[in-house]
Amino acid sequence: YTAAIYASRADISPVVYEGVQPGGQLTTTTDIENYPGFENGISGQGLVSVMRAQAVRLGADVRTGAITSADLSQRPFRIVVDGSDEILAETLIIATGATAKYLGLPSETKFRGLGVSACATCDGFFYRKKTVAVVGGGDTACEEATYLAGLCKKVYMIVRRDVLRASEAMQERVRNTENIEILWNCNTQEVLGDEYGVTGARLERKGGEIFDIAVDGFFLAIGHHPNSELFSKWVNVDKEGYIVTDGKTSKTNVEGVFAAGDVQDPLYRQCVTAAASGCRAALDAEVIAHGGGNINSGTLVGLVFGAGTEEYVLPVIGAEGAAVFPLRKAVASVVVNLHPGAAAHGFVLAVLDVQRHIRFADLISGLHDLGRI
Ligand code: NDP
Q1: What atom of ligand 1 comes closest to residue 224's alpha carbon?
Q2: pTM here?
Q3: Are strands 77-81 and 67-71 parallel, antiparallel or unpaired?
Q4: Which of 10, 219, 339, 371 is deepest in the core (most CB within 10 A)?
């Protein structure tokens, strides 16, 4: 929805297909207390609803339907909706998210949102001073267990082998946290609960011993699965299936195809980081949609930097024919085909792209001198 909000404001007229679970993982969580702007938190469903409404108000064409296949071999891209309708798109932003892996137990499904969660950062706060379990032995499980240990009275880690898969550093953190107890060689048979939610878990230890633990929260941390299958024939994905993007941009290896949110983010996977990457994708897409590299009003076409007789043009957005402005203060100037109100997008890209080469303050003063800001 964030990509749609930005794309709408940039007059790209985005069409959004919401997929089989409109709003994605957010709708399966309870309250969200770490999304800025909501002093008292907001429900996952509530946040999704206001984001959707905002996108619609700004002009996004939000449609019900799931993409069932896609052909990205040439532009316009061919996208099939619900197995039948085909639409053509010059520019595509893939924001299909990721799906947390669950164990597949019926009792786990029954208590989802009532004590069963796959996101400690989202839901851990509700288990302050309580006892919880985390299933998994990877980096995520260790990270979530240590995070929860800071809030909860006690954290069990349910590990199916006698070793952790996590990096040594993460294992060390777990070992050094007093209120984490690892239950080795254990698999979960059932999540236990009553009408109010989770009360415990029934475990089976290798060898056949079956025992119950009393917990108020049951967290899954056995990995995520990025929803990239539909596109992985064309866009590059890493070994886990996450779409690979180019540096700090949202660009994939296919020109005109961008990726945003959890489908390209194996690390942070937060609502706010996903929203931010949706913004990036829309800004990247805007450049293509508004001319695909030609110099347009309001488009930042290049950065000129260097000193003395040497001048370099760094095409920020793949533009050709960027005019070279004389350098100011022998540091930097920015080529902007001025159009009130529109240059700001390009400007942000520019700062991101050049900050390794020049000082931000010099860039700003160069722009001032040129009358660009
Ligand atoms: P991983 O695939 O690394 O680990 C999954 C864990 O869950 C493993 O311990 C696995 O057990 C266990 N597991 C899988 N299926 C089941 C099951 N059905 N029942 C019980 N246990 C199960 O996933 P992560 O999400 O931990 O990490 C994904 C990637 O992200 C990794 O590359 C990781 O390094 C990285 N990451 C890095 C972080 C950091 O650097 N701060 C933080 C978080 C993630 P087993 O070992 O037996 O297969």
Answers
A1: 25
A2: 0.65
A3: antiparallel
A4: 219
3-state helix, strand, coil in the chain (%, to 5): 30, 25, 45
CA angle 300, 301, 307 (to 5 degrees): 105
Ligand 1 closest atom vs CA 161: 47
Q: Which residues are catalytic?
A: 119, 122-123
- Residue 325's φ and ψ, nearest 5 degrees, are -90, 145
Residue 286 neighbours by CB distance under 10 Å: 23
Nearest CA to ligand 1 atom 2: 223
Separation CA 261–CA 192 (nearest Å): 33
Query: What are the structure tokens assigned to 88, written together?
Result: 């053509």
Gyration radius of the chain over CA positions: 24
- Residue ranges around ligand 1 (CB below 6 Å): 103, 135-141, 143, 160-161, 165, 222-223, 266
pLDDT one-digit tens code per residue, 201-258: 999 999 999 999 999 999 999 988 999 999 999 999 999 999 999 999 999 999 999 9
10 Å Cβ neighbour count for 281?
A: 29
